[in-house]
Amino acid sequence: MIMEKKSCYFCQEKMDEIDYKDAYLLRRFMNSQGKIYPPRRHGTCSRHQRMLSRAIKRARIMALVPFVVK
Q1: What does the pLDDT look like over 7-56, one tens digit per residue?
Q2: Residue 53: exposed, middle, or buried by beta-carbon count in 10 A (0-12, 13-18, 19+)?
């Protein structure tokens, strides 16, 4: 089964920086348990996936998004 490649959301929007304070955007790339989705799920490129995970981790430390959801 051949699936077409998903395009990176951040490349489409021409975003150079991912803001850790934008909790609504970050939540789109996390599951209901608070885990970060892998790149194959949303099609993020490797550059933006690294930026995204760094932003999510910073937001967790600042208590903008939870570490885990009970």
Answers
A1: 899 999 999 999 999 999 999 999 989 999 999 888 999 999 999 999 99
A2: middle
Which pTM does this prediction carry? 0.87
Tally of domains within the chain: 1
- The CATH code of the domain that includes 56 is 4.10.640.10
What ranges make up the beta strands (E) of the chain? none
Q: Which two tokens stand for residue 11?
A: 């490349």
Which residue segment(s) compose the domain that 18 sits in? Answer: 9-61
Estimate to the nearest angstrom the gap between the alpha carbon of 38 and the chain centroid. Answer: 9
